[in-house]
Amino acid sequence: MQVAGITTPQEVFVASRDRKFRINELLVIDDPHQGPLIGEVVEANSYNRFIPLSIEHAFSDAHVLESLKSLGYSIDEDEINIAKVKLMSEASYPVTTGSYVHLPGFAEVKGFLIKGSREEGLLLGEIKNTEETARSMDEDLKGLFYIYSAGKLDKTKNVPFILDLRSFQQYPHIGIFGGSGSGKSFGMRVILEELAKHNIPTVILDPHYEMDFSESQEDIPKAGNFKKAFSKFQIGEHIGVEFLNLSKRDLLALLSAVSPLSEAMSSAVEVLHRRGDTYLSFSSRLDDLAQALEMGRSKIDNALRQDMEPSERERFRRMRELLEDYQNIPLPSVQGIAWRLRRLYSSGLFSHDIKPVKEAMMQGKLAVIQGPIWLLQVFSTYMLSNIYRQRRDYKDSELKGQIQGDYFPPFVIATDEAHNFAPKGRETATKGIITEIAQEGRKYGVFLVLATQRPTLLDETVTAQLNTKIIFRTVRGSDIATITEETDIKAEEARRLPYLPSGDAFVSSPLFGRTVAIRVRFPYTRSPHTQNPIDEIKNHRASSEEKLLSLISQHLPIYAANFARAVEDINRDSEEKYEVRTLKETLDALVEKGRLKKQPSPLGDIYM
Ligand SMILES: Nc1ncnc2c1ncn2[C@@H]1O[C@H](COP(=O)(O)OP(=O)(O)OP(=O)(O)O)[C@@H](O)[C@H]1O
């Protein structure tokens, strides 16, 4: 392999007669004047005499041709492999044409490939096309995980891609971008498994109900057990919000997450919510005021003149007071607040608190929060503000040398569909807290892992703070443009984005100082949704058939003449609601499948 053509201090062409180049592989150029220079292949091509060098293409540059000839290549006969190579760091002078080039041993390029220790890093996958270099790699870095590729699962043979945990302090936030089916969810799962391995407290917002780590991939030997590494909470069922602790700001955020509040409603909440309010006290105040506004003063006074139960009288008195204090609040605003509040209440939100989440975090677990996206927004606004504040207060008081309250650890927040939580050009309940953490979470050790299919729809301030970006296959032009703007991805790589296979990604990270092409390792656990829908139908059918058969077999033989009795018996023993007609159909279907026999008799058919 030799350098050919006109060179620059940043970029060269390398030619080889017998070795095909692979994109992203590293090469060492032995420049006689500048010593070894490391470069990365960004374009790889092969030519032979049957397909002449094209006129438009850069490689056809007359200088490259001339240079190849003078290096002893016969461009009319030989197959020639040519690579465009970008140097990792700029050379002092243009590279010497004709310099020999060799494939690096691990020691020569270790500094470019490995930026963290195996013990203290997240093992996300392998660096593409580093197989030859990996042969001379330290033994303890070899075969650390499994890669699934071309229908086969194998131990990795490449150099591992390790994201150093300690580097989070410097580069705290991770973005995962990629279109549908590109490998984003697998990538997120791998990151979360790695965080779990290190017992890093992590809160996961899971709008897709897919973040379950209890089922291991069967094909991976010794996949490890993640069952105890995570706890799953459903909003309204296991966790919720303590109304008593809500500030006015929290309450406004919660109500507006149900449906945006008008100006009048916001000001009404400001004046109506009082310190120490419980759900009951606040909601009855709203109901009383709504009724008072509806009745008007004279009707209330009239009512008070009548005979009534003391508790009833007390209520009318309260209504009159409320009317005096808040007569300027429009009735529709009070009603608007009341229905939003009722919606929150009926979701179960106010019946629980976030203690279980905090406990899971204190144990260094993954705390998976599940709920429909609107409720997740409502709840996470409150929860993230709460735990972030707790961590901030702890850290601030530690810095001031006056620790108050209990220890609260650094933590990670991870979510898919991040553009719903911090959308561009639109306010949502969660956006404020996510932007705040994106901007100053680093100081407190609070880190974000945000995945989205649509980076273009993610708030720019947040996107700009995502220091490490993992970019999977992306087809949409506008998203490729955003990615190109927001990362150091090279033009050649951006062109490849629409064609990346699922699970391949570019990692743009300041730690590496360049974009690294990786294949994400195969996760140890699997999502509960991995079953193919067609298999699901078949399995369900087979298991219902078994259930049916074992139910019916207890009542065999069934005589057609005595169907009514059989229906009664079967319905009594099960939750089924057969009628004579449906039982007959079911039995006939089982006969057709060969699971039952039907024998004619003078008194009618007998099923056995
Ligand atoms: N690292 C990987 N190794 C092997 N196969 C992978 C990998 N990543 C993804 N795949 C394959 O691609 C499929 C889709 O991946 P995944 O579910 O992660 O996509 P996604 O980007 O999250 O899509 P969506 O946004 O639609 O959920 C997986 O079911 C799997 O078959």
Automatic annotation (TrEMBL):
Keywords: ATP-binding, Nucleotide-binding. This is ATP-binding protein. It holds the Pfam family DUF87. The lineage of its organism: Bacteria, Bacillati, Bacillota, Clostridia, Thermosediminibacterales. PROSITE patterns: FTSK. ATP binds at residues 178-185. Gene3D superfamilies: P-loop containing nucleotide triphosphate hydrolases. It comes from the Bacteria. Residues 158-481 form the FtsK domain. InterPro entries: FtsK_dom, HerA-like, HerA_central, P-loop_NTPase. It comes from Biomaibacter acetigenes. GO terms for molecular function: ATP binding; DNA binding.
